[in-house]
Amino acid sequence: MTRASVHELDLSNSQRGWCAISDLHLSEHMPETMAKFEWFCAHIAPQYDALFILGDLFEYWVGDDAADFNPTALRVIEAIHTLKSRGTQSYFMRGNRDIAMERAYCERADMILLPDPCVLTDGEQRIILSHGDLLCTDDHEYQRQRRFYTHPWVKKIILKAPLSWRVKLVQYLREKSRRRWLNTPEHLRKQRTIEQNVTESAVQQWREQYNATTLLHGHTHRPGEHADGGFTRWVLPDWDLDNSPHRWGYMSARHQQFELITHIHSD
Ligand SMILES: [Mn+2]
User: Fold this and answer.
1) How far does residue 13's CA lie from ligand 1's centre (Å)?
2) What is this structure's pTM?
3) What is the C-alpha separation between 155 and 217, in angstroms, rounded?
4) Is 148 exposed, middle or buried (0-12, 13-18, 19+ CB in 10 A)?
5) What separation in Å is there between the alpha carbon of 116 and the centre of ligand 1?
């Protein structure tokens, strides 16, 4: 396996299978969630040959060059290194919150950077892996903003800007997104919630385009299994051990047996 980006992966010969997580939103403000991720890397993930992190591992990412000032980013490197030493390869796909992640950080952490989407073959299964936001095609404003910030030139210019400016940009975007929700009138909130989910048509298009049996994504924070005519869409849970209800979970795939493990409890 090279370290280059890969669009197709094959884990058919994997003895110990693979697991997947997403939407941990790690930051200095989420100490319990960070601790749970380290615990997961020490006790659960080593039971598998591969760990897929399908985006939004971090709450925000202002550039790989900021990792040295970011204790959370350094602890993730440590956890993933330890996991690698126990025989588990980690793969990372960007989410909307860590869309600015580049290969430099992934190499430091010994994770293989994956494009979104990519296809994983596991025996008879062809599994599309994605963060999931690309499938929320009814949210036009979000998709417009995403296209702008992921444009190669825009991204290049932003990542060349001073760190302090990038931090301000991230704060601005988070505030804008929060305001957009707060400014949504009560009677339109239900509609906005629907727009923030994946659309049937986008899922169908990928299913045909990639000749897939399965889709696995996160982003929507609506964990579950949706089976439809020989095709299954799995949604990963988000993690939050710092706010109630406490929740975390992962996808377990071994010998083509898929299981979504979710834990949730209020206290
Ligand atoms: Mn997301």
Assistant:
1) 31
2) 0.94
3) 24
4) exposed
5) 12
- The encoded tokens of residue 182 equal 């707060």
How many Å lie between the centroid of ligand 1 and the Cα of residue 220? 7
Diameter over CA atoms, the chain: 52
Work out whether the CA dihedral 172, 102, 51, 20 comes out positive or negative.
positive
Q: How many whole angstroms from 58 Cα to the centroid of ligand 1?
A: 10
Residues linked to residue 247 through DSSP beta bridges, in sequence order: 240, 264
Ligand 1 mean position to 94 CA, how many Å? Answer: 9
Task: Give the pLDDT confidence of 223-259 residue by residue, as tens digits.
Answer: 999 998 889 999 999 999 999 999 999 999 998 899 9
Which residues make beta-bridge pairs with 53?
Answer: 21, 92
Residue 110 CA to ligand 1 centre (angstroms): 23
Strand order in the sheet with 231-235: 8-10, 118-122, 125-130, 214-217, 231-235, 224-228
pLDDT tens digits along 131-141: 999 999 999 98
